[in-house]
Specification:
It comes from Adhaeribacter aerolatus. InterPro entries: SP1917_dom_sf (IPR023204), UCP033199 (IPR014580). This is DUF2200 domain-containing protein. It holds the Pfam family DUF2200. With 121 residues, this protein is mainly alpha-helical. The chain has one domain: uncharacterized protein sp1917 domain (Helicase, Ruva Protein, domain 3). It is 59% helix and 3% strand. A two-stranded antiparallel sheet has the order 1-2. Strand 1 and strand 2 form a beta hairpin. Helix 2 packs parallel to helix 6 and helix 3 runs antiparallel to helix 6. It starts with a helix and ends with a helix.
């Protein structure tokens, strides 16, 4: 699937706050916790709970969200297909980072072990 410049622009302007409640619902519906979700987000971005809440309250865009993140050096190990896109083929850095987050949330919801999600094993 090709990613258009319009798609990249839409991803950049989308707010993290608009997606965050969906992440919580998705993982909780599958028996995982908000705390586990926060652990996954912290691993990818370096954001602890307080900073994460602040970013949600400020309704920052994904562009601002990832500009402020300290991306985990092992993030490049996140591969596979999410939302119809193969992560390792995404060229736009911001779109790739958003898809990293989507993939981690998806793995959490699917019941993967935390050490696998956090690329520790």
């Amino acid at each position: 699937m090709n990613i258009t410049p319009e798609h990249n622009a839409r991803m950049a302007k989308m707010t993290f706050a608009s997606v965050y409640p969906h992440y919580i619902t998705k993982v909780q519906r599958k028996g995982r916790t908000k705390e586990e979700l926060h652990q996954v987000i912290a691993w990818l971005t370096g954001f602890e709970d307080k900073k994460l809440q602040e970013l949600v309250e400020k309704k920052v865009t994904f562009e601002t969200f990832f500009e402020n993140a300290k991306l985990n050096p092992n993030a490049h190990l996140i591969t596979g297909v999410i939302c119809g896109y193969r992560i390792e083929e995404i060229e736009n850095p911001l779109t790739k980072q958003v898809r990293y987050l989507d993939k981690l949330v998806d793995e959490l919801a699917k019941g993967k072990k935390m050490e696998k999600i956090l690329r520790q094993a």
